[in-house]
Amino acid sequence: MDQYKSARAEAEHVAGLLRAALTRAGVPEAEAARVRPLVTSTGRAYVELGAFRVGTASKLLDALPLSTAGRHDTPAPSAEATG
After folding, report:
1. What does pTM read for this prediction?
2. How far apart are the C-alpha atoms of 58 and 37, rounded to whole Å?
3. Of the candidates 37, 32, 59, 64, which has an alpha carbon nearest to the alpha carbon of residue 48?
4. How far, in Å, CA of 50 to CA of 80, rounded?
5. What is the pLDDT of residues 21-75, one digit of tens each?
6. How far apart (Å, rounded) are the C-alpha atoms in residues 81 and 49?
7. Partner of 82 at 20 to 30 A CA spacing, among 4, 9, 14, 41?
């Protein structure tokens, strides 16, 4: 049970940080609330992002540091291509 509680606390913390970052990026709170903590029965922590409207997903993408020229219409190179 302690492993579950620890994993839950970690997932809640990271989900909260992600929700705050989305809000700072201009995502409405109602959509940022779709980011939720999740813990499996084995005690593994996850953060579920949920489904976002395309405009919201674009804001999220614009807020992420991308190694390409900052344009989200250009696919990033695959892991195989970069070695």
Report:
1. 0.72
2. 22
3. 37
4. 28
5. 999 999 999 999 999 999 999 999 999 998 999 999 998 888 888 765 545 455 5
6. 28
7. 14
Q: Whats the size of the chain, residue-wise?
A: 83
Residue whose entry in the numeric block shows the structure tokens 């970690």: 10
Q: How far is the C-alpha of 10 from the C-alpha of 18, rounded, in Å?
A: 12
Burial class (CB in 10 A: 0-12, 13-18, 19+), 12: middle
